[in-house]
Design brief:
By secondary structure, the protein is an all-alpha fold. It is built from 33 helices and 2 strands.
């Protein structure tokens, strides 16, 4: 005779739906504890017990029951174990369970793939999560009713996170802009708004958030409590967007409308409270600093993403600096960054370096601050935040050459280290972009080309990061195309090939590849010619006749650059003399008041007064000076010569060419 507990359990399981999960747990527990069941009945009871615990959100108890059931139960409950580990925040353990089930090989159940996508999303492996959701979306076989909408919601969320990570290249072009289907549900409209926020399009994000809020308030699928829970993140995001748009009154109104006591998710509560600190920090930074320290700690699976944590910590650093907590911030920055062997490019470490530099100088600026920070950089040579702060100060005081020299010294030290970690930092896209910007400000185009070419070569050699260097490869390819040297064109072609390997449908890369190899390797160009738009399509709608009739607009060169050659009239003869502009009317010359046109002007009027023939000096001394004066004439030098035999003396003109030293007689030495 069957055990009563087993019979009751089987009767419950035969029902179409089970609403009382506590009853199912009680019956399954009683059946397991009964010693009269073995084999399939025991396995079914244990499985029911695990599912009931998950339905009751008792995830730790579910994991304990699976562990007590042995290997057989663990194998049968792979989905349940992975889900329980995911809900408790053990993402690494959940990934290990999923790998055993064969999720990566595509042989797993559809439910396991959904769990794998959620685990990858919470573990911030958004590329993998988006790939899983795309596979599920394309594989419609075995899909449940309403699953397509859930997949679209999860896929748009993963795309938003990828763009927040700076991986726009990993998002297909058709998924970057919101589609019509995204405006039909408040979840997809919210995710589309997040995508716009991630790329800085706050105006469009404001419209989408309003649409999401209206849809959420009008839906009939949720009760009032569920609507309030779903509206909280929408309102928080709306307040953030209004703040970025400068609408502070609207943002404050929305923040006050949020009842934080009713928010169940700790992460959402922390973000809402953190955004409220902005107006308080402006009014009284000391109160804002106290409230920032009172923010709740997040534990378990309900945690912030890395970019959210970094933004929250950045706000705390700014509030601490406003509250003049310079010494503590400087000590913390030096303690965490001084011993780094490899420069850290993470947002948190870079922000900490900037905050430490501000604390060390008490938020100073100008040349004195630069002189104060340079010795600190020698103590912390791997502090990128400090390095960027000094460069920014150089830019503010308009002294770019020292900034370029400082960055080049940093690059040289990284290259001399010759380790993969140092080289990756050397060619980080952000630092390469900074170097290119500084070079272009000094019109150093050759250095720009060399820097981009080296960076593109480095990222092309790293196959596991083929997409990470796509932005550098694009910039390098466009820059190298401006050169006519064959080696530069070949390097540009390789850069565009790298982009196409990661993004096959990229039109810019396709056009660049064709332009690079058009004159050297037509075999590489030919497969891409059909994907480019034809000339007829590009010129569609252009009225050629109207353009010909209108003529070609020419810029008139400056008068100094106009050619003085005669224009050719097409018949071999010079054209007729063009109409000249009327000459300007000459100005009327001014004449002296006593000018008499009948009287002939004095021809010696341009000579000095003393050189004129009419000049008569006054007095004897005046006449003598007049004879001795030169007024530009030749000076006659005379000397007296004694005649032989005492016959007297005579004055003669001295011969020229002797110089001033010729008049001096050589002294005779004493005998």
């Amino acid at each position: 005779m069957a055990d009563p507990a087993v019979a009751a359990l089987n009767s419950l399981l035969r029902e179409a739906s089970i609403d009382d999960h506590a009853e199912a747990l009680e019956l399954a527990t009683a059946a397991v504890r009964s010693n009269k069941i073995q084999g399939p009945d025991l396995a079914s009871a244990q499985h029911t017990r695990v599912v009931a615990l998950l339905k009751l959100d008792r995830y730790d108890d579910a994991l304990r029951v699976i562990a007590e059931g042995g290997d057989a139960l663990e194998k049968d409950c792979s989905f349940e174990k992975a889900y329980a580990l995911y809900k408790t925040g053990d993402l690494e353990g959940a990934e290990a369970v999923l790998q055993k089930t064969g999720v990566d090989t595509g042989k797993s159940q559809r439910g396991l793939k959904h769990i794998a996508g959620q685990v990858a999303y919470r573990n911030e492996k958004f590329e993998r999560a988006a790939a899983i959701y795309r596979d599920l979306k394309d594989d419609t076989e075995g899909a449940n009713y309403g699953e397509e909408n859930d997949l679209r919601i999860n896929l748009t969320a993963a795309d938003a996170q990828l763009q927040w990570q700076g991986k726009e290249w990993a998002v297909p072009e058709e998924e970057k802009q919101p589609a019509r289907e995204d405006l039909e549900a408040f979840e997809t409209a919210y995710n589309a708004a997040c995508i716009c926020i991630s790329r800085g399009d706050y105006t469009k994000a404001s419209v989408l958030l309003k649409r999401s809020r209206d849809l959420c308030e009008a839906t009939e699928d949720l009760n009032e409590e569920e609507k309030k829970a779903e509206l909280v993140p929408i309102l928080v995001q709306q307040a953030f967007v209004f703040t970025k748009l400068g609408k502070l009154d609207e943002a404050l109104s929305l923040q006050n409308a949020i009842n934080l006591s009713e928010v169940s998710e700790t992460s959402t509560k922390v973000i809402a409270q953190g955004n409220k600190l902005l107006p308080k920090a402006t009014a009284n930074p000391f109160i804002a600093e106290r409230l920032a320290r009172a923010l709740p700690k997040i534990e378990g699976n309900d945690r912030l993403f890395v970019f959210q944590t970094a933004a929250l910590q950045r706000n705390k650093n700014v509030i601490d600096l406003q509250a003049q907590k310079f010494e503590g911030k400087e000590i913390r920055a030096h303690k965490l960054l001084a011993g780094a062997q490899v420069p850290d490019l993470s947002v948190s470490k870079v922000d900490l370096g900037v905050a430490g530099a501000a604390a060390a100088t008490k938020c100073g600026d100008g040349k004195p601050t630069v002189r104060q920070l340079l010795p600190l950089l020698e103590k912390r040579p791997n502090d990128i935040g400090l390095l960027l702060t000094i460069i920014q100060l150089y830019i503010q005081i308009s002294t770019l050459p020292p900034a370029i020299l400082l960055l080049e010294k940093f690059f040289t030290r990284l290259e001399e280290a010759n380790t993969p970690e140092h080289v990756d930092v050397r060619f980080a896209p952000g630092l390469v972009a900074l170097a290119v910007s500084l070079y272009r400000s000094q019109n150093r185009q050759r250095d720009v080309r060399n820097e981009l070419a080296k960076a593109a070569t480095h990222w092309r050699s790293k196959t596991e990061a083929a997409g990470a260097g796509s932005s550098i490869a694009r910039a390098a390819g466009i820059e190298l195309l401006r050169s006519s040297h064959p080696s530069d064109l070949a390097a540009a072609g390789e850069a565009f090939e790298q982009i196409l390997s990661a993004q096959p449908g990229d039109r810019t890369a396709t056009a660049g590849l064709v332009a690079s190899y058009a004159t050297t390797d037509f075999a590489k160009v030919e497969p891409y010619l059909e994907s480019l738009p034809s000339v007829e399509k590009l010129t569609q709608g252009v009225d050629v006749s109207a353009l010909i009739d209108a003529g070609v607009a020419l810029l008139t060169p400056p008068s100094s650059q106009q050619s003085k050659k005669r224009k050719f009239d097409g018949e071999g003869a010079a054209p007729e003399k063009e109409k000249q502009q009327p000459a300007k009317k000459p100005r009327k010359r001014k004449l002296p008041k006593n000018y008499d046109p009948t009287k002939k002007p004095d021809p010696e009027r341009w000579l000095p007064l003393r050189d004129r023939s009419t000049y008569r000096p006054k007095g004897k001394k005046g006449k003598k000076r007049a004879l001795e004066a030169t007024q530009g004439g030749v000076v006659k030098e005379e000397e007296t010569l004694e005649l032989a035999g005492g016959a007297g003396s005579v004055k003669v003109e001295k011969a020229g060419g002797g110089g001033s030293g010729a008049n001096k007689k050589k002294k005779k030495g004493k005998k």
